[in-house]
Each structure stands twice: as structure tokens, then as C-alpha cells.
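Interim report to the steering committee. The following record documents the input for DNA-binding protein (280 residues).
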Amino acid sequence: MPARTAVTGRSTDPRRRFAEELRLMRTQRGESLRQLGKALGWDSSLFGKMERGQTIGSPEVAEALDTHYGTPGLLLALWELAAADPTQFKERYRRYMFLESQAVSLWHYAVSVLPGLLQTEGYARALLTAGGLSGNELTRQVDARIGRCQVLHADNPPQFRTILSEAVLRTPLGDATEWRKQLEHLVATGERPNITVQAVQFDVGPHALSNTDTMFLRLPGGRTAAWVETGYSGELVQESESVERLQHAYDAVRDLALSPADTRKFIIQTLEEVPCDPST
């Protein structure tokens, strides 16, 4: 369906409107894409893709363009509208994945499943199968997820903290052997110096993140972004006040959680409750 146009003749679709404004501002100034790229220090191909609506870039790029064109806040506001468009989930997730790869520390809260960075192959396969994947696509997604885990085992890995709802540890896989492997992996991984695992028990009751699976990404330079996810969609939060509000909620939940040492004991106790494979 073609994008709607307003009385101005410009699109009311957030992504198309952003692209139109970028192209209009550049052409009114009489700049080529190459000149724009040279002036701002980015590859000119990025601006070409933004003007064609193939990407919306980052908030840093939008801010730089606002400064360049003397339109303080205008392009950034249009960028935020484009980023919030519910049809742009894949683009937001690609942006999140890039930021995750750049982060110096990661803080996570899990509502119902283990974070992807701590999953075993068997656990990842079971989750993705339950989500409807099969065949080559299932294999590709499992390999991609396990490949991401290597970021925590690099020569200079980010600090990673995860707080797990007790529901995460009380929801076993159908295959007891794979569930045992996952819990054993969680115990072993939690002993690494750059990884901290904590659990929030059921008796804590409702809290500020009860329904919110959240990952915070602290980036070089001190800026923090957050990825807030449900089972079927996710939102990349980069506006500072919203991120700060989420961080306060996270801090409150961390105060309610078991210590890392007590969490380790809790996971081991849960592991001991897993039925043994009768064939062993």
C-alpha cells in the first residue's frame, strides 16, 4: 500500500518522511552525498541509504546532521519517530546487535528464559523449535545464537550481569539431560570473573521489572542504551530519561536478588532435583 501523504505533499510514514527531509535538506544546500560524507566524517554511502529509506542510521548521525544543517532537534525528532515505528523491528534489532558487540558492560534481567549469551546449544534449539523454526533455518538461528556467546569469552570480554527470575530456573526443558547440561553450564559460566549471575526468588513478589525482559548496554564513552523485549517484539531505548528510569528499576530488583554465592547454591540445588537419565 503506498505511503500516505499530508497536505504538504510529504509522506506521513515516519521512515519515508525522515528520508524525504534528509534528501530535501541536502539538495537545498546544494551538496552532493560525497561532500556531505566528507563534512561529517561518515561514509557517503550511509547517507545515500538513509535518503532511500534503506536505513535510518543512528541517533548520533541524526544529531550530527541537525548540527550541520542548523536544525537543532528536528532531524533527531524525526529519527525517533522512525525508530519507534512498529514495522521497523528488524532494523531496531540490527542496531541492538551492533551496540551489543560494542558494549563494555551488559546488565540483564530475565523474566522467563535464560539470556541468549548463557544458553547451551540444546537449550537454544528447544526454545527456537518451540517458536516454530525447523530445518535449515533452525540450524542457522542456533548457530548464530551460540556464536554470539563467544563475546563473553573473548580476550577482553565485557562485564556481564544477569538477574534471573526464579521462573527461569523452574521451567525445565522436556529433555532432562539437556536441562541438566544447561544448569551445569550456568554454574560454570557464573564462575568466570566477568560474569555475575543472580536470582530473584518467587517470595519477593511483584517488582518493577516483573513483566520486562531488559538488557542494558554500557557503551564506550559512558552512554547507555537498553533493549526491552517481550516474546514477540523488542524496543531499543536510547533516550536518556527513559534509560535512567529503567536503570533505577533494575537497581531496585538487584537489591531484592540473592547474592551471586547464594544464587550458585540455589542453581546447584535445582540441578540436584533434575531427574537422572535412566540410561546412564
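Residues 112 and 167 are 6 Å apart (CA to CA). The committee is asked to note this result when reviewing the revised timeline.
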